[in-house]
Amino acid sequence: MLFKEQDISRIIEMAWEDRTPYEAINILYGLSDSQLTGFMRKHMSSNSFKMWRKRHRGRKNKHLKLRSSKVTRSHCSTQYKPR
Predict the structure, then answer these.
(1) Which own/partner pairs from 24-30 qualify as long-range (CB within 8 Å, at least 24 positions apart)?
(2) What is the pLDDT of residues 31-70, one digit of tens each?
C-alpha cells in the first residue's frame, strides 16, 4: 500500500500511542498487526523499531479484546487542549 507522508506520520504516531488499539489502525488504514510491524520496520530506524517492538509486545491495551473495560477513550483527557 502506498501512503502519503502525513498518513505515514499518523500511523507511526498511532502505533506508539499507548491507548490507540491496533484495530483502530486497521480500520483507518487497512493494516493488520503483521502488516503494521512490517510498516514500522520500513519507516523507522532500526533502533526506533526495536524500541517500539520492545515497548508494545504483549501490551494488553493495544488490543481491544484484551483491553480493560475501564479504558473508555483513546487518549488522555489532557492530551488535546483547545488552542
Answers:
(1) 24/74, 29/1, 29/3, 30/1
(2) 998 999 999 999 999 999 999 998 888 666 565 565 556 5
Alpha helices in 3-45 (DSSP H): 5-16, 22-29, 33-43
User: Does residue 74 belong to any structural domain of this protein?
Assistant: no
Q: What is the DSSP secondary-structure string of 61-75?
A: GGSTTTS-TT--SSS
C-alpha closest to that of 18 among 60, 50, 69: 60
Domain membership of residue 20 as a residue range:
5-66
What's the domain count of the chain?
1
Residue 57, Cβ neighbours under 10 Å: how many? Answer: 9
Cell numbers standing for residue 59:
501490551
Q: What percent of the chain has pLDDT over 90?
A: 43
